[in-house]
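Q: My labmate handed me this sequence with no annotations at all. I'd like to see what the chain might look like in three dimensions before we decide whether it's worth expressing. Could you predict it?
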Amino acid sequence: MGARFGANINTSNRMSNNSKLVFGIVGLLIVVVIIILVAIILVLKGSEGGSSLGGWAAGGKPQVVEPEFTGKTKIFVTKQRIEENMLIDPDSMLRLELRDIAEVKSNMFQESQRPTLINKYYAKMMINADTPLLEDYITTEMPVSRMQIPAGYRAITITVDARKGVEGWARPNSRVDILLTYKDESGKTKVATIVRFVRILSVAGQLGDGGGQRMQIGKDTNITLLVEERDAKKIELARSYGEISLSLVGNDPVGAPTEPESPVTPEELFGGQKASTEELSPPDGRMTVKDPRTGEIVLYELRKGKWSRVAD
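A: Here is what I predict for the chain of 312 residues:
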């Protein structure tokens, strides 16, 4: 019996060892499967995010990922005001702006169309700065002349010096207001703007702007302006009333005044104080008289039929 009892004990031990071995193998297989699954998940995440380390490169430094713009495109926008008949130069006149595709119209020029813009198109009209370039604004037809006068417009020439010509900064294709300094019926000196936002065609016969540099203006320099027909008449009539000068303005058109413009008067110039043009214009006559009391020579001036002593 003892032998049989001992045999049973050995058999039980062998079965127990076999069970442990089976469980160990199964556990090891489970661990291996888990490791493989984790590795697959990390690989998938890495392919989506650009890095299997959650956006961090080796060495603990953040990895820079370039953003992808979906649903957007770049269109051409004007850098500056482009005058009518000017040749479109994409490098100097245009810039690219990123816009949503939903906002981009079919007649807007996009980045891919840049080669078609080089030395091909001319402005059909004045195009303000910061404006998307549209097919409606340009043409492939070369202007007959850079001095081509649109219908309803006239070219008129005035003569200025360095001061009246804004020291030479009033260049071809820049915009100016026309100022008139004159005297009214009572003899008061006034200044009025008679024409606004006028385009300069040429300065001393030069059509180019000199590369953006200041123009050389002498004592009597002719400047040709492009204006509407009625404004040409106003400028010509103004010559007989007083002195014409230019005032340089910016790129955007100047809107019509909300109220009728009144000329600037000496009263406004001197803060509401009474300032007659007698103090600003030459007297009608002068004479010197010896003061009988002091013997001094006193200067008198004649203004509007009245003699008055000139203060020392």
